[in-house]
Amino acid sequence: xxxxxxxxxxxAAELLAQGAVGRVLGWxxxxxxxxxSPAFFHSAEQLPELVYNGFCAANLSKYLIKAGENDGRTxxxxxxxxxxxxxxxxxxxxxxxxxTYLLGVGCGGMLDMEKARGKGIKGVGSLEEAGGAVVxxxxxxxxxxxxxxxxxxxxxxxxxxxxxxxxxxxGAEETAANTGFDRFAGVNELEDMPAGERFDFWRGQLSKCIxxxxxxxxxxxxxxxxxxxxxxxSGVSAKANADSFEENLFHIIRAYHVAGRCxxxxxxxxxxxxGIPLHLLNRKLIKDINAFYGPxxxxxxxxSLPPLTDYTxxxxxxxxxxxxxxxxxx
Amino acid sequence: MPIEREWEPLIVAFCCNWCSYxxxxxxxxxxxxxPANVKIIRVPCSCRVNPLFILRAFQxxxxxxxxxxxxxxxxxxxxxxxxxxxxMTLLFSMLDYMGIESGRTRVEWISAAEGGKxxxxxxxxxxxxxxxGENRRLGDxxxxxxxx
Lengths: 330, 148
Hints:
The complex is a heterodimer.
Chain A: H1 2-18, E1 23-28, E2 37-41, E3 50-51, H2 63-67, E4 74-78, H3 82-91, E5 100-105, H4 113-118, E6 124-130, E7 133-138, E8 141-146, H5 153-156, E9 168-170, H6 185-191, H7 195-206, H8 214-218, H9 244-257, H10 267-271, H11 279-293, H12 320-323
Parallel strand pairs in A: 1-4, 4-5, 5-9
Antiparallel strand pairs in A: 1-2, 1-3, 6-7, 7-8
Chain B: E1 11-16, H1 20-29, E2 38-43, H2 51-59, E3 64-69, H3 80-97, E4 105-109, H4 115-132, H5 141-147
Parallel strand pairs in B: 1-2, 1-3, 3-4
Helix pairs in contact in B: 1-4
């Protein structure tokens, strides 16, 4: 990773010097090692701040919408799974491909600081990744933890390390392979519960929502200039604890509006400050789409037609929800 | 003294202008009975029904929501009901996943010539909702108080 960061800085500096790109979109280190955040770099002098480590989970593709308002090309670093979001934005004409320079970077799986905290690693000042472990320098001394124990939910269900779009690749050999994890396991478990228990489960989860809109704002598929939830006349008060109905409404509609376009990048669950497993809503829709309309991976092919803008005469009837019974019945 | 009344369900039916609304009209002119609990909302096409409409109906006190459109292949706009079918399948499945009783939502295809089917479907649906009881899981307490 350390070596890869250096390669990324060197290549970015080169392209900036050549004038091939006007700005660089990457991650800037925060103060604590585990909090790098997306940032633009405009000159070679700023580049030493560019970092790439196991905590650079943020998908940068959505920032290209804003970057596209400027002249010249934007160099962007994309991990393999980020390229799905990029393809989705390209197919929705939100990004001009000619104004981007895609530098695909390898990824060994991104890490979740909450999992480290759960293991009692607190007061972290700095950290280093060495081999298959992460070494934290904390207020209470040095602590080490295997990487595999800290993987983010979205990386446990990794789609595999292939970049769906790129102009150039760097360090692709560092990429982890698909683990074969069944991403629908959590959805199946919920479907097998009686309806009453499912209701209680979701009430317990969604009542934690503080309506910070982080899940919406981070989502590469949610890029409307004016969102339905920002409409004051919609009757949605956009406040925490307004009412249990509004919590349900917000989360059903948020997931539904990205149905067929959600690449299952898992950013919504990652950024949720309340730890709501939002990926379970998205994956339910993906599972249904796969079952009813054939396997579909949003973002794999920018020229494909999303399932909800398409139909066949033989599609299942909505009654299938009540009649299919079995594992999914009440 | 207030009169104690038995609980009656409220049912919202989204009917497309070209088939199902005309079907309801035919049911009326043919003097067929269907429950007065069914409130019809006319939409230009079944694909006009935004998933928010369905949720909003539940919020405002509906105990069941039914969407009726032209038979697949007969849409006035050629393909609107095909898109609506996909949307409603996913929405209903999502509501079921959230633990909302799946019997509260339904889609039926009713043509302008099927007044009898319209009345039969509405009678049957109203009966099913009566069995399910009041919508508590997807209701909004503020709207319920407002109604009283």
